[in-house]
Amino acid sequence: MLSALRNAYKLPDLRNKLLITGLILVIYQFVAHVPVIGVDRNALSQLLTSEGAGIFNVLNLLSGGALQNFSIIANGVYPYITASIILQVLTPIIPSLEQLQREPGGREKLENYTYFLAIPMAILQTVSQINIFNAFIGGGQSIIPGFGADLLLTLTVIVTMTAGTMFAVWLGNLITEDGIGNGLSIIIFAGIVARTPSNLQRLLTSSPRPEVHLIVFIVITILSVIGVVIIQEAVRRIPVQYGKRVRGNKQYGGAATHIPLRVNPVGMIPLIFAQSIVALPALLVNLFPEGPVGRTITESFGQQQGLFYWGFYFILVVGFTFIYSEVMIGNQNLAENLQRNGGFIPGIRPGKKTQDYIIRVTRRIVLIGALFLGLIAVIPGIVDIFNRLLFPNEAVSGVAGNPALVLSGSALIIVVSVVTETLRQIEAQLAMRNYDRYVR
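-> structure tokens emitted (440 positions)
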């Protein structure tokens, strides 16, 4: 990894890409410290210790760390990600969208639709986020006093945070176009990395057993990174044969290759989507009158604890991995592309039989990837259960009482996925430039 970065820095164009990526991340972190107008700092600090702290941490992860200051980009790039997922799920269901995707320039039009859909999603998230946080704080306090009552203040906050979302998406696209790696993923990655030192400090200074928790953190991190890398890089190769064609005195085709099907073809998307869904129960229950059921849901989902919460989270991650993998494989039209280019899988008839075979194989291998993603995602819950069994008299919650929360399972998968994908792009750029030099 270090050698690849060192070699990339020696080349002027790659060095510029790396510097542009770093500059954009600095700009993002700078904007992440610009608060929305009218934010009550005392109420925000109280929220971090309230029952909604668990949900706050989830949304802060998705915003790349901007929510902890309730900045103008507190929504992060999540509304755009949600809009993108909605369109990708609807494309194979709605015939007009599926036809548009196959037309020349159709993907660009769908990308524009994603931007348009991200705007109302950002507005919805802004309003619901502020109202729900106010409900968690209680006592008549508000994150933004006067929001909802003062029309001018309300419109200003909504417009500012919606514009902040689109600005964050624009910065991510700049990284994708002029920098290195997937811009939106790198923005989330940078926010996670920026919060890790403070979390580690809390673990070492506030934990009742800092040495033991530090060892547990190191062991969990090493084993998780090794497992994530293995699963992310694992592929099932399906053999493909191309038929021979004779034109004049020359023979074309007849080559043998393969289709690489990944064990985890969807990366971190199921985790992001599952985190957004698992936050909904605690958010929605505060919209109804208080009762025993509501308190139970708030304690479980708001504080991110209990077997029901972690079991529900595990099921969501596994389920979304299967659903999104099937949608993505279906959108690639592998069987149709093979048949168009004269390729076939030995022993499988072209067309629908080939598509059914690819989907069947994908489901089998994705099962392993989905179970692994689910297991990594619930590691904090597993550590919390062991802590309660081994140290029942300790009532320390959060990072100080759970070393797995320094880098949660979801955050760890995002970090490893972004790093491996970015390094893969750097190595591809290096290989291309070495090849060009060899041709000359």
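Strands lie at 235-242, 244-247, 250-253, 256-262, 343-344.
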